[in-house]
Amino acid sequence: MKKSCRFILNDKEMEFSLSQGRSVLDLLRKDLGLYGTKEGCREGECGACTVILGRIPLVAYRPMPSCLMPAGQLNNTHLVTIEGLQGERPNRLQQAFINQGATQCGFCTPGFIMSLTGYLLEERTVTVQGAVDDLGGNLCRCTGYGSIRRAVEETVEPLLGKVPSLQGLIELDLLPAYFAGIPQRLATLRRKSPADSPDLTFERFDGNRPLIAGGTDLYVQRGDALNKSDPRFLIPESEPIRVEEGMIEIPASATMEQLRGDPHLIDQFPGWREKLLVIGSHILRHRATLGGNLVNASPIADCAVLLLALDAQIQLVSSQGSRRRFPLREFFLGYKELDLKRDELVESLLVTKHDDAQLWNYAKVSKRERLDIAGCNSAAVFTVNKGAFASVGLALGGVAPIPFTARRTMAWLKEKPLTRETFLGSMKVLQEEISPIDDVRGSAEYKRRLASALMADHYLHCFPDICSYHDFVKGGTL
Ligand SMILES: Cc1cc2nc3c(=O)[nH]c(=O)nc-3n(C[C@H](O)[C@H](O)[C@H](O)COP(=O)(O)OP(=O)(O)OC[C@H]3O[C@@H](n4cnc5c(N)ncnc54)[C@H](O)[C@@H]3O)c2cc1C
Ligand code: FES
Ligand code: FES
Fold first, then answer.
1. DSSP character string of 209-254
2. Which of 231, 341, 344, 435 has its CA 20 to 30 A from that of 384?
3. How many domains does the chain have?
């Protein structure tokens, strides 16, 4: 069924009647003839299709892959494509790409320009490394990344150490002047067509009306069917992460990037932002939600493993409005089998708030350092009292049919002294507890070795004065 959708595309207000599940990439290229947004992989891997989405009041501008976005989520937003940055001549960023020879065939270039413009619009202190990290989801097959890095350095040079404003970016010729009027125009648009209230009369498995959050699993699994569908939506990043009654409450709609940038989690877990860089890419993390990661129920889902180690609680809400809250580890029943009824949604995840920074680590082994699915991953949280473990949270992915909480190893470690012998002993207990299988990501034996290596990484990271890499090699665990 087609429905009307009203938004601002670059500097023009648009109203369309369309299948709500049609991908924004197809809307742009096939329906509107805007060919600047390129179609590469259609799986969120290459960044050629990157656009920028602006939403009020909670969300500012975010770069994201248009191949994984349903057009029905465009209502009341500002959608920016490469055409929307174009003036009579190349802007400062485009000129930097020309100056540095950072483009050859040009196929990837619009995606890089959109991701970098998105970085500058995200209201953060500008650094070269930050800009480079945010380009992690954009691939170039022919130019090489050295010249692209130089183009980045040339572009951000006048902004280093500053938090750019919309007006500042316009004055530096990084955005066209019409951007100044967009916040007002979006507010007017929203008054004319207020957002629909969320559709809570759902059956999650209604094939005719699939439920899409970020779409990063669904569009990869069945993009063609979704293109013609009339889905229901949970809008990514539509709610803030809050602290209430000693708990950090993370809505299921929180994106991975929202999770990565949350100040409470950053305070509580030193190195949080850097460690979470290995999950997806910047543009993907702006779409992928926590709820989607848990319900997709992959045994190597990164957020699931992370939240299990943090001993998170999960809260579900039914279509009748009743709620259930229980430990996340009880949510995963078997391979892709969840304690989630047909009429329930994941509403939020709750993590205990601590005033002190915690000892923790997160590590992942994959073929590529970034933007890859893990062979194995693991997170650990330790509390220590008088030289012994007071409590341990330990979870691993890729070693069992579900994201796995290593309860036996956790219990074994409790009250044991912080010594090399304890560390080595715990790795033996872990080996007895896990049950990896051979699959496309590696043999069971390989994953057993990865589990030991990840455990060693936790100890080396959290207790560098007590153990060294050689202790694990000598102890026969690596
Ligand atoms: C290029 C690429 C890289 C990736 N890298 C990683 C990675 O490094 N680590 C990783 O863990 N994953 C990765 N993924 C997988 C994916 O991004 C995550 O699993 C993501 O969190 C899914 O969230 P989503 O909002 O996009 O889910 P969607 O695709 O929108 O939905 C997935 C499923 O969850 C259901 N659902 C969504 N929200 C709720 C809710 N609140 N309640 C009930 N059901 C719900 C949907 O109906 C659907 O069945 C990657 C995917 C791609 C395409
Ligand atoms: S086409 Fe490759 S990320 Fe969208
Ligand atoms: S310039 Fe050809 S793919 Fe990047």
1. S-EESS-TTHHHHHHHHHHT---EE--TT-S--EEETTEEEEETT-
2. 435
3. 2
Tokens of 124: 């953060």
- Mean pLDDT on 376-382: 97
Pocket of ligand 2 (CB under 6 A): 39-42, 44-49, 65, 67
CA-closest residue to ligand 3 atom 4? 140
Residue-wise pLDDT tens digits, 310-349: 999 999 999 889 999 999 999 999 999 999 998 899 999 9
Q: What are the tokens at 404?
A: 């796995």
Q: Evaluate: CB of 138 within 6 angstroms of ligand 3.
A: no
pLDDT at 200: 47
pLDDT at 54 over 60: yes
Is 88 among the domain residues?
Answer: yes
User: Is residue 211 within 6 Å of ligand 1 at its C-beta?
Assistant: yes
Distances (CA, A) of 459 to 112, 259, 266, 381, 426: 38, 25, 21, 11, 11
Please state, rounded to an integer, the average pLDDT across all residues of the chain.
92
CATH assignment of the domain containing 361: 3.30.465.10
Q: What is the CATH number of the domain that holds 141?
A: 3.10.20.30
Claim to verify: residue 396 and residue 277 sit in the same structural domain? yes
Query: What's the pLDDT band for 474 if we cut at 50, 70, 90?
Result: confident
- What pLDDT was estimated at residue 207? 56
